[in-house]
Amino acid sequence: MSLAEQALAYVRAISPYQPGKPITELAREMGIPVGSIVKLASNENPLGMSPKAKQAVQAAIDGIERYPDQFELIAKVAQRCGVAQEQIVLGNGSNDVLDLIARVFLAPGRSAVFAQHAFAVYPLATLSTGAELIATPAKNYGHDLDAMLAAIRPDTRIVWIANPNNPTGNFLPYAEVRAFLEKVPAEVVVVLDEAYNEYIPPAERVDTAAWVKEFPNLVVCRTFSKIFGLAGLRVGYALASAEVAGLMNRVRQPFNVNNLALAAAAAALDDEEFVSASYQLNRRGMAQIVGGLEKLGLEHIPSYGNFVTFRAGNAGSVNQKLLQQGVIVRPIGGYGLPEWLRVTIGTEAENARFLEALAKAL
Ligand SMILES: *Cc1c(COP(=O)(O)O)cnc(C)c1O
Asked: In the predicted model, is pLDDT for residue 1 greater than 80?
């Protein structure tokens, strides 16, 4: 007897998540020194973490024997977003929060809608509950909200939307998102994942936290992993109605965010200088990489995130040649885009290294 046969069929059917290749793994495989590898594969912040967050982590080491208290970070996020503390749910990364929403609303016999080429965690969170996943075809590589609305069935309880989307970088103007929210049935939760919110030009950003008061079925998710530079500490949060947040908190592990992460996130929220420097570096780096891709005659998808996806033809071979030169980007065949590669915007020097290596790889 194989024990796997005893496992839930819907768990066995899940394809595993493929993370960006760690620097240490490439170093082991190719014998390249860690220091000469450039990783532009996981949309991490090339500036590292805010110095204020670093100080907060160091200070929080005293007290690590105690269980964490989420109060301070929740109070800060609530104040920043203009919502009540009861409307906030913290996660061990925002992936954790996505999972909590799925566990509250999905089960076998229910379904969730997501868009082709959208973030891989939506299928994972959905399928791990035994619910059915309904994928709608992409429009210009991004979400087609009309198709998503039409795909909603009586058993649908969640619609997943990433704005901007990863890995394509597409952005839905907020007027379209709002029109969608006005049409979605009240019993369907709309998850608006804004992991890259802080990279959207301010003129195009909208206060979606305020929408949570208007739409009780809206859950907005954000993360400290991207512009705040805390991917390794794992902190994210959801903004929801107090009712939905309360349900998510029932299935949440009581101590899901650790002391160091809580301290770092609270300090990072206050470090506007670091966030602004990260935003500016990304704007310049995006122009540098997009300019370089155009020079090489490569098509790209205009991106609102800290990464850009480009058509590399034989992406497997190009990726291999980049790896041999110590440059890690992200193949996205698993997202239904086998000819494309996604590159994270790095520092000016990292971007130049990538473009040089890419020219050779082609
Ligand atoms: C990176 C990312 C997240 C955040 O993941 P964490 O678990 O917070 O590190 C969420 N959604 C999307 C679309 C992302 O790209």
From this structure: no
